[in-house]
Specification:
CATH architecture of the largest domain: 3-Layer(aba) Sandwich
Radius of gyration: 23 Å
Strand content: 5-15%
Number of helices: 19
Shape: globular
CATH class of the largest domain: Alpha Beta
Strand order of the largest sheet: 3-2-1-4-5-6
Number of strands: 14
CATH topology of the largest domain: Rossmann fold
Helix content: 40-55%
Structural class: alpha/beta
Distance between the termini: 54 Å
CATH superfamily of the largest domain: NAD(P)-binding Rossmann-like Domain
Amino acid sequence: MKITVIGTGYVGLVSGACFSEFGFDVTCIDKDPAKIQKINQGEMPIYEPGLAELVARNVKAGRLHFDLDLGAAVAAADAVFIAVGTPTRRGDGHADLSFVYAAAEDIAKHLSGYTVVVTKSTVPVGTGRDVAGIIAKTNPDAKFDIASNPEFLREGAAISDFMRPDRVVVGAETDAARDVMRALYQPLFLIETPILFTNLETSELIKYASNAFLAVKISYINQMADLCEKVGANVHDVAKGMGLDKRIGNKFLHPGPGYGGSCFPKDTLALVKTAEQQSSDLSIVDAVVGYNQARKTAMADRVIAAMGGSVAGAKIAILGLAFKPETDDMRDSPSLDIIDALTKAGAVLRAYDPKAMDEARHLLPQDVTFCDSATDCLNGTDAAVIVTEWNEFRALTPAQFAAAMRGRVLVDLRNVYEPGAMQDAGFTYLSIGR
């Protein structure tokens, strides 16, 4: 079977590489010549552990190809995956589907023989029907079915999530489409991966419902952390006590500065907008959207409070810029809001991240100093803020902080360090919910 993937962003690139690892012939298409050239030279446009090696291995094996020419790749394909971006639309908060619809129109012009067109992008309910209508209108003679196959990839663990997923969700409404999708995921049958077949609308909603539930869980434990601070409880013990209940589980019960990334912020907002269109009450998710944004800004207030109420002229180290470890993704990262607020309050900022520096340079104020290492970032600072829990930060000892810093204020927004050890070293140490 031949697969064509439209879009070489996070979802498209990982999915295409993993399908080729399954043994299929895969062509990934993108309109950006520079991007395709770099990928063909072995340079990945994103940082994802193991991705460069996976791509190189399958390119060498002749199973994975990258091209600008959509026409030939679509004409030869048994399945075409739409994996383009669906960012938040400016002005109203809805998902911007212009890239999806443009891809559908381009695909329609080149379909040859029966083809399953699959929406891999995260799209609101009803998008699959819209895509079908666009294809039918553009090419009335096209023989095709639409399928929905949402991704559930965690940045930093995307390859293992694709190769060993908790489940595969497929929205498909004909036997022919289901047969094609079963064949594509046949390798997962050997490890008994559950594959759930639904209609299009259900599949589209499963993705949003899953992300929104996890976002609610994150915000819930963050609010519990705030309460723990007021009553003298330890949020980690609270989370452990909750997580031992199998009905709750221990995942996503880690307090922090709020969620970010490519999925949760835009997907929760898009789900709220869909509910508003349908006059359906989704007040829980709506509240989480507002709370999470406010929480990120409130983290800067914690830093200011730790510095005695003012950071004007203070030199502060920001350790971690990406929204989570093992990625260079800066989209809606808490660091953006924290740095913006501290800069406006007059702080002099130094920043370091193991992988996200290049992305961050385009997004942060020009007066932020970018450093070459964690110790360089800490050098001569009055305070330090841990924003992203990279493993290399975990290895820093109280003595290393003390040797590098001028001041003794450490605000740990990821609870990386033991409070007692930092306090014994003379630090004013603030963490979350402890």
